[in-house]
Design goal:
Blueprint (H helix, E strand, L loop, with lengths): L2 E5 L6 H15 L7 E5 L3 H14 L4 E7 L9 H7 L16 E4 L3 H5 L3 H8 L19 H12 L9 H11 L2 H7 L1 H14 L5
Parallel strand pairs: 1-2, 1-3, 3-4
Length: 203
């Protein structure tokens, strides 16, 4: 089965290339190499649009959408969150199943806090490890707080304050998905689904 993953991230040129590459590297640490295709779609609205179009244009493929939740998630089903969230109000497209929408809770950057060793190694000297949150469940840390922490702990380093396009995709390629799965229920759910779809022995 051909698996196509539409991810929120990258806006033009090299940022889309870097986004695709980073997600591919991150996912291939768990999924079989070559078993999926990442499509970087830019904004979250463009991701939903691309996902919806792909359902019609590639009926024989398994289509997945991955976007930031932007806030805490109360609903177990990702579509419920995306439908009720002000600013999205997305309906589940015809033909889409509940396990075809996945969330980075509360943002991609939340995953970085799950692998604090990778963060420290990436930024090196000056990184303020002692200022990192000790919350084991990264989904409980607000998006605002995630970005505040990242800016604070990285500011004294040679690379400088965290920057989404300069640092974000490089970091994504470095972090350990095993640690992310332990710290994020929704990330683990995504991997369970993708492993089932990309590993023939599990189907």
């Amino acid at each position: 089965m051909n698996v196509r993953i539409y991810v929120e991230g990258g806006f033009e040129g090299s940022t889309k290339t870097n986004c695709r590459r980073a997600f591919r590297i991150f996912l291939e640490k768990v999924l079989p190499r070559g078993s999926f295709h990442v499509i970087a779609t830019g904004s979250r609205a463009a991701t939903y649009k691309g996902f919806s179009s792909a359902l019609r244009e590639h009926p024989g493929d398994y289509i997945v959408m991955l976007v930031d939740s932007e806030e805490a998630v109360a609903a177990e089903d990702a579509w419920q969150h995306l439908n009720s969230r002000v600013g999205d109000n997305w309906r589940r497209p015809n033909g889409a199943e509940s396990d075809q929408a996945h969330l980075m809770v509360q943002s991609m950057e939340s995953w970085f806090l799950a692998d604090q060793q990778a963060l420290a190694d990436y930024y090196g000297k000056g990184f303020l490890s002692n200022s990192l949150p000790r919350q084991a469940d990264v989904e409980k840390i607000s998006k605002v707080e995630v970005f505040r922490v990242l800016r604070h702990v990285t500011k004294p380093t040679k690379k400088g304050e965290y920057h989404k396009t300069r640092h974000g995709f490089e970091l994504l390629a470095e972090i350990d998905p095993k640690r992310v799965r332990k710290a994020s229920h929704h990330a683990d759910r995504m991997f369970v689904v993708l492993q089932r779809k990309t590993s023939p022995t599990l189907n």
